[in-house]
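Form P-L/3: holo structure prediction, ligand zinc ion.
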Amino acid sequence: MKAIVKSKSEPGLWLVDREIPVPQDHEVLVKIKSNAICGTDLHIYHWDLWAQKTVPISLTVGHEFMGEIAALGKSITHLTVGERVSGEGHIACGHCRNCREGKQHICPNTQGIGLQRPGAFAEYLALPASNIIPIPNAISDDIATLLDPLGNAVHTALSFDLIGEDVLITGAGPIGMMASAVAKHIGAKNIVITDNNEFRLKMATQLGATQAIHLQNKAFSDVVKEVKQSGSFTVGLEMSGQQGALHVLLETLDYGGSLALLGIPEHEIGIDCHNIIFKGLTLKGIYGRKMYETWDKMLHLLESGLDISSVITHHFKATEFQKAFDCLQSGQAGKILLHW
Ligand code: NAD
Ligand code: ZN
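OUTPUT (holo model):
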């Protein structure tokens, strides 16, 4: 089979031939139809320090996928060959305290596909059957390819009660855009989103944000003033991983407000604890998606009319992944799909 692999310790990815994996008794073999590219894949492409520490050379990369079941391990009886599926790419250990308490999303021993074990940017993927998610008929192949990042957006957006609340989202990347759509769908009042990319802010307002704030060339104090004028924010969703965004949130969230942190900063960042303490803010770190509560809720949100289709801006053949990565880096893209 063809696979997109981190073959060398330098920037880039390579298309190579690999053996089709043989599913173990508890696993499912998925014939991949399409993948989507995540910012994480871009870090691996660029081979930054985090990627060098995390990803072994010669690993197949990628974790966003949909496909059809091609074969079942011996002990699997609840799934069928040919079924359309996606899957949770974090394989939790199953025996630590968190796993045993039903909190697999914060298992300290988790192994990620495309990070520590072979990934989904290939013609076939073997995955434990417990991680497989059958796709309801109402959900298209393209949307099913996005369930992993949509799950990040849903898990973050459902962290706090958004109904009738003013929500501030920092970062109009694909996850911030999808979080805007989720917030709108579940009944948030004002959904204000910030970014320094005009193209992405426009997309976010099409998906559900009620106001976009363009940060470019604005002083911190002006941004804070503009945000404060745009609403009374009880909930913040940090989706950029940038220090400046976190500072804006801490400065503008209301007394008693709540903040969910999804964006991953590259370095340690300093924060003003006075805002957290004296305003009595609640901060919550977000990793991945809940297994499997987020998946169930996300499928229901989609079946009940949540529309994220406009987040997809480009399609490429999987073998033309280089063009797709170039396109993503241009900043003029939402989600990009690769088709096998
Ligand atoms: P992305 O990099 O495509 O989007 C981030 C956006 O933030 C960009 O559009 C960028 O222009 C914008 N931005 C930059 N500086 C900003 C600022 N000061 N204020 C507001 N916006 C600013 O990423 P994505 O795929 O949408 O993911 C969002 C973040 O979540 C990333 O940091 C990603 O690494 C992280 N992530 C975390 C998890 C998790 O489990 N915690 C999972 C997936 C992604
Ligand atoms: Zn565990």
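COMMENT: Residues 92-93, 96, 98-99, 107, 109 surround zinc ion (ligand 2) (CB under 6 Å).
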